């Protein structure tokens, strides 16, 4: 077990990589009642074409990672996993994203039992034809729920407009049609590939003793006798630089149009600290450009083109990267035009040192605030770690950013050739 | 291993003590929890007035105008820059219904100085900022700045209209509207669309002055500070003309309609939303409160609950299905998203589960699992400054002091009979179904 102390954050992180490849991290939080644990696999909706070294190449139906997440709650002894956690006072859940699937619980007592339950159910798949078919009705309703949700639709509308080939464009839950092709055999194939401990990470944060937790996990894993697994190769069709569609329109009853636009990056392939640095620089740049204290924001608000729900975000992995900007608006076409005019002006002048200092201070404050939340720590750390970057090393990166970095990023990212727009309007 | 609630407390709490120290200044109740457990100061200001047809709309508009500018920061951009300069202090507000009150809540959270370099203590700057926001808004000719009033009126109007974008929320609000059609509770917390257009800087300012003088005001702070320090800061930064503190009057529960009402509404949706409204005579201050909490948990509060296990896991009818208990109003609600043609079937299963609960068809494991999860929720709330604040305020709002430890003990002792008794007072009042449009 190694320990890493982050003096400025007043946090100490404990880590061990077990013999079977599982990465275990523990962050003790003095004075906290709650323990929050996540058991995550580096496997999400984008992993639909893959090969384990020495085995056959496989293509699987859309939505299978999410389907698999649902089915992990089924156990051979017939005891419901939720009930098992409930009986020990733990609140359990799971979620699937583009790049990962995460199983979690939070509890204040009986942590050892709950941790064993978490490790054991995720490492004990039980799929039958009957329980797979039963789940299709439930997930079908989940898909329908999202179909009726205009915020979700405009979000996916943008990704679909930007990406032509990359599986990030596939809805995480799949479609009712695509999940109909899922069988217990395809589930086992995915499970056996991606749920090997060497592809997984356990993060435990809260009022725990690190040595005890790691010793418990060591024992639990040693008893399971995992054989080593070859490297997983993920295949992605080559993504053209250009966006697929400039303007994607979806009809759904809404009070006023929903609007999102985004810039698709052409320069991808970064990993680790370089990727993280670019991510933080871009987010800071977007704050300076579009944050609710900026002149641009206030101008568009005064023109009644945006309201409180206006926002922006930036997503980046080594495979794909894009920004998202938007909200509800009375006139999407006018808003794009006004954004283009106003952003153009800022690109010419750049940001001021004063605004830069203020926005950086806000970013640092927000980052420190996240460290109050065990959930945020676990999720952010895992997400970063899967990209070979360190959530606890963000402060020094922020402090090394300069006004020139951000101005450069502004000029590079605002490439109107790379713009795509998604709108949801009433029929 | 079992651990008693007291030994878990790590010195922050003592039995029968909420952890808050209390004072009163300028007619404002001040509640402070001194602690070094968090990296922030959490500040929450509750201002409540009785929910009423003629004041609901201008009152809702007030916080939207207050966050546009103050005497020191008259322009919205400078107001927001000031927050950013406090290491991005969080600032937010909310307007909602609680019992028969319309609540306006303002929140700030600021980094504790020990993590950053700051010239002036951040708590002092935070309270100065919040105090000025609430008590010294920017004025024009003795009234709110007309430009801000107009823009925020439009903003609130859009928010009211936007309820329809989220069908889950829309169905929940429609069900309450139908069930409480003869009570102020039918009103949206944001007010009424037709009144909104008549408001201007003068009329909202008049309402603002009433609100500032007559609302119930509670200011909470959790962080590395003391009651003395906070009292001084509040005295300095919240200069309000208030003669006394104003208490809350808990809502009196109403009986259900003599016959269950069924409302079906059509819209272009792929999934149907089935919502049910129930009345209960049990509110927060009731002796049976703990039993009612457990009863709701057994019915639909958790993934092991009757509704989830039967509607979702057994019948595959829904992705989400659950129940909620509102102890401030004395109502409970059930909500689910289902296939359009499954309305009758889902309704029947839900009614059957409700009936099972009321006739005492409850297993030992349902009870013990529910108790364990409620216990966990209560214990976890101690890790969140805002949750501790909310818990304390709930007691104050309901005029019933009940510490977390007392409630934990109460829940532990609840029997199956008590759960059944607390369930038997649940009366179905309204069934609301949002369904797809029929082919023309």
Lay out the secondary structure:
The complex is a heterodimer of chains A (427) and B (440).
Chain A: E1 2-6, E2 11-17, E3 23-28, E4 35-41, E5 49-52, E6 57-59, H1 64-71, H2 81-87, E7 91-96, E8 101-107, H3 111-122, H4 129-147, H5 150-162, H6 176-180, H7 184-194, E9 200-206, H8 210-222, E10 232-234, E11 247-251, E12 258-263, H9 272-290, H10 295-302, E13 311-316, E14 321-328, H11 332-349, H12 353-370, H13 374-386, H14 394-400, H15 403-413, E15 419-425
Parallel strand pairs in A: 3-9, 11-15
Antiparallel strand pairs in A: 1-2, 2-3, 4-8, 4-9, 5-6, 5-10, 7-8, 12-14, 12-15, 13-14
Chain B: E1 21-25, E2 28-34, E3 40-50, H1 56-66, H2 76-85, E4 90-98, E5 101-111, H3 122-135, E6 139-140, E7 143-144, H4 146-162, H5 167-179, H6 193-196, H7 201-214, E8 216-223, H8 227-237, E9 261-266, E10 272-279, H9 289-301, H10 306-314, E11 318-326, E12 331-338, H11 343-358, H12 364-380, H13 385-397, H14 404-413, H15 416-424, E13 427-435
Parallel strand pairs in B: 2-8, 9-13
Antiparallel strand pairs in B: 1-2, 3-5, 3-8, 4-5, 6-7, 10-12, 10-13, 11-12
Helix pairs in contact in B: 1-4, 1-7, 3-8, 9-12, 9-15, 10-11, 12-14
Task: Summarize, please.
With 427 residues, chain A is of the alpha+beta class. Chain A is built from 15 helices and 15 strands. Chain A is globular and about 65 Å long.
Overview of the structural elements:
The complex is a heterodimer of chains A (427) and B (440). Chain A has 427 residues and is of the alpha+beta class. Chain A has two domains: 2-234, Cytochrome Bc1 Complex, Chain A, domain 1 (2-Layer Sandwich), CATH 3.30.830.10; 247-425, Cytochrome Bc1 Complex, Chain A, domain 1 (2-Layer Sandwich), CATH 3.30.830. Helices cover 43% and strands 20% of the residues of chain A. Chain A has helices at residues 64-71, 81-87, 111-122, 129-147, 150-162, 176-180, 184-194, 210-222, 272-290, 295-302, 332-349, 353-370, 374-386, 394-400, 403-413, and strands at residues 2-6, 11-17, 23-28, 35-41, 49-52, 57-59, 91-96, 101-107, 200-206, 232-234, 247-251, 258-263, 311-316, 321-328, 419-425. Chain A has a seven-stranded mixed β-sheet with strand order 1-2-3-9-4-8-7, sandwiched between helices. In chain A, strands 11-15-12-14-13 form a five-stranded mixed β-sheet. A three-stranded antiparallel β-sheet of chain A has the order 6-5-10, with no helix packed on it. Chain A is globular, with a radius of gyration of 23 Å. The mean pLDDT of chain A is 96. Chain B is α+β, with helices and mostly antiparallel strands. Mean pLDDT of chain B is 92; it is low at 1-16. Chain B folds into two domains: 14-237, 2-Layer Sandwich (Cytochrome Bc1 Complex, Chain A, domain 1), CATH 3.30.830.10; 261-435, 2-Layer Sandwich (Cytochrome Bc1 Complex, Chain A, domain 1), CATH 3.30.830.10. In chain B, strands 1-2-8-3-5-4 form a six-stranded mixed β-sheet, sandwiched between helices. In chain B, strands 9-13-10-12-11 form a five-stranded mixed β-sheet, sandwiched between helices. A two-stranded antiparallel ribbon of chain B has the order 6-7. Chain B contains 15 helices and 13 strands. Chain B has helices at 56-66, 76-85, 122-135, 146-162, 167-179, 193-196, 201-214, 227-237, 289-301, 306-314, 343-358, 364-380, 385-397, 404-413, 416-424; strands spanning 21-25, 28-34, 40-50, 90-98, 101-111, 139-140, 143-144, 216-223, 261-266, 272-279, 318-326, 331-338, 427-435. Chains A and B meet through helix 2, helix 4, helix 10 and helix 12 of A and helix 2, strand 5, helix 4, helix 10 and strand 11 of B.
């Amino acid at each position: 077990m190694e320990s890493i102390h982050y003096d400025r954050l007043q946090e100490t992180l404990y880590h061990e990589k077990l013999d079977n490849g599982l990465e275990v991290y523990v962050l003790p939080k003095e004075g906290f009642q709650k323990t929050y644990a996540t058991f995550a696999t580096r496997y999400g909706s984008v992993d639909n074409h893959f090969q384990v070294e020495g085995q056959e190449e496989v293509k699987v139906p859309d939505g299978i990672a999410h389907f698999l997440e649902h089915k992990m709650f089924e156990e051979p002894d017939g005891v419901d996993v939720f009930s098992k956690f409930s009986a020990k006072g733990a609140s359990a859940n799971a979620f699937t994203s583009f790049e990962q699937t995460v199983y979690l619980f939070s509890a204040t007592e009986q942590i050892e039992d709950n941790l064993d339950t978490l490790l054991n159910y995720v490492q004990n798949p039980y799929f039958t034809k009957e329980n797979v078919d039963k789940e299709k009705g439930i997930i079908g309703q989940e898909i329908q729920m999202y179909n009726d949700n205009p915020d979700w639709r405009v979000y996916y509308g943008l990704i679909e407009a930007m990406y032509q080939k990359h599986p990030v464009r596939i809805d995480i839950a799949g479609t009712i049609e695509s999940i109909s092709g899922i069988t217990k055999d395809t589930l086992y194939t995915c499970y056996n590939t991606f749920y090997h401990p060497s592809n997984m990470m356990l993060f435990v944060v809260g009022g725990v003793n690190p040595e005890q937790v790691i010793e418990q996990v060591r024992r639990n894993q040693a008893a399971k006798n995992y054989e080593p697994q070859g490297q997983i190769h993920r295949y992605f069709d080559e993504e053209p630089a250009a966006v697929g569609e400039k303007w994607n329109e979806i009809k759904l009853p809404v009070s006023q149009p929903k609007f999102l636009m985004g810039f698709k990056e052409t320069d991808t392939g970064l990993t680790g600290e370089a990727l993280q640095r670019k991510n933080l620089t871009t987010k800071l740049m977007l704050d300076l450009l579009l944050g609710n204290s900026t002149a641009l924001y206030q101008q568009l608000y005064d023109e009644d083109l945006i309201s409180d729900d206006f926002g922006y975000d930036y997503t980046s992995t080594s495979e794909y990267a894009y920004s998202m900007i938007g909200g509800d608006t009375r006139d999407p076409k006018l808003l794009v035009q006004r954004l283009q005019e106003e952003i153009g002006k800022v690109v010419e002048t750049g940001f001021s040192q004063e605004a830069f200092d203020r926005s950086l201070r806000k970013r640092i404050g927000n980052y420190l605030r996240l460290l109050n939340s065990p959930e945020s720590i676990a999720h952010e750390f895992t997400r970063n770690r899967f990209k070979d970057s360190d959530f606890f090393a963000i402060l020094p990166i922020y402090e090394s950013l300069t006004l020139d970095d951000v101005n450069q990023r502004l000029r590079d990212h605002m490439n109107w050739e790379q713009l795509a727009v998604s709108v949801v309007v009433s029929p | 291993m079992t651990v008693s609630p007291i030994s878990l407390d790590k010195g922050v709490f003592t039995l029968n003590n909420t952890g808050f120290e209390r004072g009163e200044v300028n007619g404002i109740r001040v509640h402070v929890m001194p602690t070094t457990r968090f990296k922030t100061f959490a500040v929450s200001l509750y201002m409540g007035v009785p929910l009423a047809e003629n004041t609901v709309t201008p009152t809702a508009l007030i916080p939207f105008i207050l966050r546009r500018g103050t005497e020191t920061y008259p322009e919205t951009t400078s107001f927001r820059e000031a927050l950013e300069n406090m290491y991005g202090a969080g600032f937010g507000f909310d307007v909602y219904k609680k019992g028969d009150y319309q609540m306006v809540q303002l929140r700030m959270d600021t980094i504790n100085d020990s993590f950053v370099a700051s010239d002036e203590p951040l708590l002092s700057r935070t309270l100065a900022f919040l105090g000025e926001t609430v008590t010294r808004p920017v004025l024009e000719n003795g009234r709110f700045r007309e430009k801000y009033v107009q823009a925020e009126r439009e903003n609130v109007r859009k928010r009211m209209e936007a309820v329809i974008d989220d069908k889950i929320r829309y169905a929940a609000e429609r069900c309450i509207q139908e069930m409480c059609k003869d009570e102020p509770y039918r009103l949206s917390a944001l007010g009424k669309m037709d009144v909104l257009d008549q408001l201007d800087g003068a009329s909202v300012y008049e309402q603002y002055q009433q609100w500032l003088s007559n609302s119930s005001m509670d200011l909470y702070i959790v962080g590395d500070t003391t009651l003395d320090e906070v009292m001084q800061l509040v005295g300095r930064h919240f200069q309000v003309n208030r003669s006394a503190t104003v208490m809350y009057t808990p809502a009196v529960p109403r009986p259900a309609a003599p016959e269950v009402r069924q409302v079906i509404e059509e819209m272009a949706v792929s999934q149907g939303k089935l919502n049910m409204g129930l009345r209960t005579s049990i509110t927060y201050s009731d002796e049976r409160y703990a039993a009612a909490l457990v009863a709701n948990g057994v019915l639909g509060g958790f993934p092991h609950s009757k509704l989830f296990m039967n509607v979702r896991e057994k019948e595959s009818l829904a992705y989400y299905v659950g129940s909620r208990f509102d102890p401030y109003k004395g109502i409970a609600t059930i909500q689910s998203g289902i296939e359009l043609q499954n309305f009758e079937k889902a309704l029947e299963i839900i009614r059957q589960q409700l009936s099972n609960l009321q006739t005492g068809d409850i297993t030992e494991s349902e009870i013990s699992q529910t108790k364990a999860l409620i216990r966990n929720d209560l214990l976890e709330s101690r890790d969140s400054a805002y949750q501790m604040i909310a818990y304390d305020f709930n007691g104050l709002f309901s005029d019933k002091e009940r510490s977390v430890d007392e409630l934990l003990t109460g829940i532990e002792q609840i029997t199956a009979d008590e759960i059944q008794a607390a369930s038997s007072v649940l009366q179905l009042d309204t069934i609301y179904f949002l369904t797809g449009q029929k082919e023309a």
